[in-house]
Give the backbone structure.
Amino acid sequence: MSSPPSTDAINAGEPSGGTLLAMYERMLLIRRTEERLGADFKAGDLIAGVHLYSGQEAVAVGVCHHLSDRDWIASTHRGHGHFLAKGGDLPAMMAEIHAKATGVCKGMGGTMHVADFSRGILGANGIVGGGVSLICGAAYSEHLKGDGHVAVVFFGDGASTQGVVSEALNLAALWKLPMLFVCENNRFSEFSATSTVVAGEIADRAAPYGVPACVVDGNDVNAVWEAAGRAVTRARSGQGPTLIEAMTYRLSGHVEAETGFLQGARYREAAEVEQWIARDPLRRSAQVLQARGIAVEADLDAIEARVKDAVEQAVEFAKNSPPPPDAQALEFVYA
Ligand SMILES: Cc1ncc(C[n+]2csc(CCOP(=O)(O)OP(=O)(O)O)c2C)c(N)n1
């Protein structure tokens, strides 16, 4: 399920009906995958807590729809959505999260290290801000090759406070690296509201380096697609990096292992969550598809059935796969 580069992306303007449908299906695949992982974690079927991407799907999908396997992404601890949006293989990711030998990293990485270099996926990352420096290397490499490929880093509002973001903005601007900085402002850094840990506006951090920035509705896949299209075109043509701040909201807890979400040590109000559920990127995308006559309910039902089947098959594959052999424990450790 690799994402081909979208031709209408280059022309900017409105995404075609086919693009809108494809983006909807990819977002749904991410949502249903995350819901299943959440349920499987609660059932005790996973070996580690998972950081779910539910609610933020429009960001990864709107950006990655412009990318091919030859472009690079670096992700965060909340990385399943980026992996799938970039065309990563769902069964291989599922097996990885289940720590199985058939996993995309042979079961050695797990949820926070899903990576597939053959698809341009440098991986999820447990180090907050870690992807920012990694992607600079990929962008520099593409800059030297000059083939028009780009490198995109996704990072959170919490990560925006890391010094490495300033260093990367400086380097990317100075060397005109073909790069996108995509900040997913989901309003929380673990259990702290962004307003309590981030000074000023994140998008404003680009200006001192002469890097253009924009703020988009991160729950509107069309808006993300349009902003990303402009930034990718700019990067591919050698004009340098762009910072996109996508305003969004995570609909799950910080990590599935947490107990504080809306109970106990409550850190966000039910009314706020309800407001964001009303702005669910999937529901909005479905409304656009129907309002524009691109899809009727039966089409959406068919997509839902296809996605459900794909998730089910991936889980079966993961559960029926063997664990890595003991002898593998010391492999892939040293190069
Ligand atoms: C360098 C580093 N510092 C702290 C942590 C602990 N930590 C894990 S997730 C997280 C919050 C990250 O917030 P944000 O970047 O906004 O991403 P979000 O979880 O909202 O997607 C923190 C502080 C870490 N993993 N790495």
Q: What stands out?
A: Residues 219 and 281 are 5 Å apart (CA to CA). The radius of gyration is 19 Å. The pocket of thiamine diphosphate is lined by residues 76-78, 126-128, 156-159, 186, 188-190, 254 (CB under 6 Å). Confidence is low (pLDDT under 50) at residues 1-11.
